[in-house]
UniProtKB/TrEMBL annotation, chain A:
Its main location: membrane. It comes from Neobacillus vireti LMG 21834. GO terms for cellular component: plasma membrane. Keywords: Cell inner membrane, Cell membrane, Membrane, Transmembrane, Transmembrane helix, Transport. PANTHER family: ABC TRANSPORTER PERMEASE PROTEIN YPHD-RELATED, ABC TRANSPORTER PERMEASE PROTEIN YPHD-RELATED-RELATED. This is Ribose/xylose/arabinose/galactoside ABC-type transport system protein.
UniProtKB/TrEMBL annotation, chain B:
The keyword Glycosyltransferase does not apply. The keyword Metal-binding does not apply. This is Ribose transport ATP-binding protein RbsA. GO terms for cellular component: plasma membrane. Keywords: ATP-binding, Cell membrane, Membrane, Nucleotide-binding, Repeat, Translocase, Transport. It comes from Neobacillus vireti LMG 21834. The lineage of its organism: Bacteria, Bacillati, Bacillota, Bacilli, Bacillales. Pfam families: ABC_tran. It is found in: Cell membrane. It is a peripheral membrane protein.
Length: 320, 516
């Protein structure tokens, strides 16, 4: 029988639980309704972007334009609503704008074959330029009241609506990745694109859908963000860009592709959220929080790398 | 002083779970060519890696170089002692010049701020190349050179380091017959200078052509060291595998039912030209020829991943253009590529995920979700029928031996219920026992009505499985032979000279070899 071993994800879940208990015990104000609510309201937007990033990374790519896609959607929604279009129309247009951005990334990456980091670096600057030329750098507001409920409202008076949206998309992503042909192909391409192509998989179509799906998640995140902040501007969510990469890799996603799970990414997002909130409550200044996050991330990555090396070595020798 | 340059005794190497080397001895004399041979997994590479300082042997090993106790803990120790290793896939810096490649590593680490002495570098390179009688502008970037030329650069580098021992790992695997001849001449020259050479190869004829002595390993154990004169090929094979194995030439005649595939004048510039042939249900067509003769490119064109420029392809009597691998699978064409590890399998993924990949579409339920149980059952079915070991559907494909990996790839393609199976180098890097098993399997599949194209460089293999043999040369079909008339000799005539009738020089023939 198999030796008892814990997956990366369950270890991460345990760490999240320990962090939660320690912070609740030792940081005054952490385990209070107000703080817990704050964290729950902040989590969905970050979580959605991290999931989007995770999927792209599993294919061996990266999407540096992801937060600017969110900003594009957000600005589109804001413009529509401030010009008097109904909320639902605005949301649909926002999602379409996001998908169009994803289509640009997907086309250049999957059909032409340019490397994702270069393409999305380019489209990041492109989208930023487009937004700036529309907004002239200012923020747009004028959302309807019902729109602000998406990011600020509660379901049944206790659960934030945005958390429900997040859980829905997290489950959807998990099912798509684990149970569908597309999801399986995502992992396969990330592990070995040539062998996948030679197995009769249309790699290009799979990648196209990956960038479209990531863009859609970004658009959903932008709905939550604009609703919460009641405004949209060029740097909407831009601080989440590198954080989402961090959360994906802290969550066990392999940066060279082939492995990554929804649950791991969610645990990582929760850990980041708690650390940031807890340290903030302790009065640690923002720059120092960043330093600590950096140190944690590097530590985890080094540990993963060393663990991988040892496993690889064992595997090689077993095959020899 | 003894006449031994290198004496390694009581060499063992234990990896977790595996004893890769068990009390092996290996002694090389000054100025000899010493062949190190054994099946895959016999421990050759492990031994070479210990010699190179990449692995550390277990306790108790003794390691003498020039009669003195040698401490080789890191690769640089080996280099400084005068041991150079030329790996199969070469280790040159492709965008640096010939001179830089030959000189590199000379004063690495010492005074990194020191200015590069370009004149000295070029002189050293020129001198080394002169000794090999290899004329080339030392400023040429290495990427512009052929594989054979690059190999000479590696040898020149070894000379420039005053190497006393040069290890060549499968040096001829990507060389043409003429280039192999040249390499032999270089080896003789090195020998005359008193340099010892360890030659690692699978190709028996080649080993007999150059080696003075053989050391045979089997399953990590030392079998013995022999003088080249006291052995013949059969004896050597027996020593390697511990039993006598020969492939029988195929005598079964395939069914040759209706025509499945027909190519007419298929052409792709630089790959293959004017290819026409038919494949019938139940027959195996062998395609052979030298590496680089366009065989693989042709196979990939049929599979839809290498689009031909012109020509016609007919499938079941209907003209068709295969647009993608996906399209090929839909049309019942399966392609098992040459490199199992990089093209055939996704090593980190489980056997199940590998086997089901081409037919995931058919394993979905009404919601588009994969039926996992059905998927695992499918994998189990092929694991059982093909006798894959270990028979565990959730093991990673990378954990299996070469032969079992190949069975998994075959299983993966059988699951698509193909009508045509193209298999490129079916037994590359597989142990002899497993090879015969794969051959039998192919014959069995043909008997069940599959049309099979087997691409192989191993003539005994082509002869063992095919009903008909096509020989390719420079992208064209140089000849077609029925199995009844085919022999290694007339195939080689077509492959090397493009005709059946010409006489062949013995040394040319020797270079295209029986491999095991």
């Amino acid at each position: 029988m198999k030796a008892v071993s814990f997956s990366k994800e369950s270890i991460l879940g345990l760490i999240a639980l320990i962090v939660f208990i320690l912070m609740s015990l030792f940081i005054p104000g952490f385990f209070e309704q107000n703080n817990l609510n704050n964290m729950m309201f902040q989590l969905p937007e970050f979580g959605l972007l991290a999931l989007a990033m995770m999927i792209v990374i599993v294919t061996g790519g990266i999407d540096l334009s992801i937060t600017y896609i969110a900003a594009m959607s957000g600005v589109a929604i804001a413009l529509m609503q401030s010009h008097g279009y109904p909320m639902l129309t605005a949301i649909i247009v926002g999602i379409i704008v996001g998908l169009a951005c994803g289509l640009i990334n997907g086309t250049i990456i999957s059909k032409i074959g340019v490397s994702p980091i270069l393409v999305t670096l380019g489209t990041m600057v492109l989208f930023e330029g487009v937004i700036l030329s529309i907004t002239k750098g200012s923020s747009i507001s004028g959302f309807s009241e019902s729109y602000s409920l998406i990011g600020n409202g509660y379901y049944m008076g206790i659960v934030p609506l945005s958390i429900i949206i997040f859980i829905f998309f997290a489950i959807l992503t998990g099912v798509l990745l684990a149970k569908t042909k597309w999801g399986r192909s995502v992992y396969m391409i990330g592990s070995n694109p040539v062998a996948t192509l030679f197995s009769g998989v249309n790699n290009s179509r799979v990648l196209m859908r990956v960038y479209l799906y990531a863009a859609m998640l970004a658009a959903i995140a932008s709905i939550i963000m604009t609703s919460r902040y009641n405004s949209a501007k060029v740097d909407l969510g831009s601080s989440y860009l590198l954080q989402s990469v961090s959360a994906a890799v802290l969550g066990g996603t392999e940066i060279q592709g082939g492995y990554g799970k929804v649950i791991g990414t969610i645990y990582a997002v929760i850990i980041f959220q708690m650390l940031s909130s807890g340290l903030n409550l302790m009065g640690v200044s923002r720059p120092i929080v960043n330093v600590m996050m950096g140190v944690i991330l590097i530590t985890v990555l080094v540990l993963n790398f060393v663990k991988g090396k040892i496993e690889e070595k064992n595997q090689k020798t077993a095959a020899a | 002083m003894s006449d031994y340059l290198l004496q390694m005794t009581q060499i063992s190497k234990t990896f977790p779970g595996v004893k890769a080397l068990d009390d092996v001895r290996f002694e090389v004399k000054k100025g000899e060519v010493h062949a190190l041979i054994g099946e895959n997994g016999a421990g050759k590479s492990t031994l070479i890696k210990i010699l190179a300082g990449m692995y550390e042997p277990d306790q108790g090993a003794t390691f003498l170089f020039e009669g003195k106790d040698a401490q080789i803990n890191k690769p640089i120790d080996a280099t400084l002692k005068g041991i150079s290793i030329i790996y199969q896939d070469l280790s040159l810096f492709s965008n640096l010049s010939v001179a830089e490649n030959i000189y590199i590593g000379r004063d690495s680490g010492k005074k990194p701020w020191k200015k590069v002495n370009w004149n000295e570098m070029e002189n050293v390179a020129k001198k080394a190349l002169q000794e090999l009688e290899f004329e080339i502008d030392v400023q040429t970037p290495v990427e512009k050179l052929s594989i054979a030329q690059q190999q000479l650069i590696e040898i020149a580098r070894a000379l420039a380091f005053d190497s006393k021992l040069i290890v060549m790992d499968e040096p001829t695997s990507s060389l043409s017959a003429g280039e192999v001849e040249k390499l032999y001449r270089v080896i003789n020259k090195l020998k005359q200078r008193g340099i010892s050479i360890i030659f690692v190869s699978h190709k028996l004829k080649e080993l007999f052509a150059v080696s003075d002595r053989f050391t045979v390993l089997r399953d990590g154990k030392y079998v013995g060291t022999y003088d080249a004169k006291e052995l013949d090929e059969d004896q050597l094979i027996t020593l390697m595998v511990g039993r006598k194995v020969l492939y029988e030439k195929n005598t079964e005649k395939g069914l040759a039912g209706q025509t499945l595939l027909e190519l007419k004048g298929l052409t792709k510039a630089g790959n293959f030209k004017d290819i026409s042939f038919e494949l019938k249900a139940g027959e195996i067509v062998g395609i052979t020829g030298l590496v680089g003769s366009g065989r693989t490119e042709l196979a990939q064109a049929i599979f839809g991943v290498n689009k031909p420029d012109s020509g016609e392809m007919t499938l079941n009597g209907e003209s068709i253009q295969i647009k993608s691998s996906e399209h090929a699978v839909k049309k019942g064409i399966a392609y098992i590529p040459e490199s199992r590890k990089t093209q055939g399998l996704i090593l980190r993924q489980s056997l199940t995920n590998n086997i089901s990949l081409p037919i995931l579409k058919e394993l979905r339920n009404g919601f588009g979700l994969i039926k996992r149980k059905k998927e695992v059952d499918l994998a189990k079915h092929y694991i059982d029928t093909l006798d894959v070991r270990p028979a565990h559907p959730h093991r990673a494909a990378g954990d299996l031996s070469g032969g079992n990996q190949q069975k998994v790839v075959i299983g993966k393609w059988l699951s698509t219920k193909p009508q045509i199976l193209i298999i490129d180098e079916p037994t590359n890097g597989i142990d002899i026992g497993a090879k015969t098993e794969i051959h039998k399997l192919l014959r069995k599949l043909a008997a069940e009505g599959l049309g099979i194209i087997v691409i192989s460089s191993e003539l005994p293999e082509v002869l063992a499985v095919s009903d008909r043999i096509l020989v390719m040369r420079h992208g064209k079909i140089a000849g077609e032979l029925d199995i009844a008339e085919a022999t290694q000799e007339n195939i080689m005539n077509y492959a090397l000279l493009g005709s059946k009738a010409s006489t062949l020089k013995k040394n040319v023939q020797a270079s295209k070899e029986v491999s095991v």
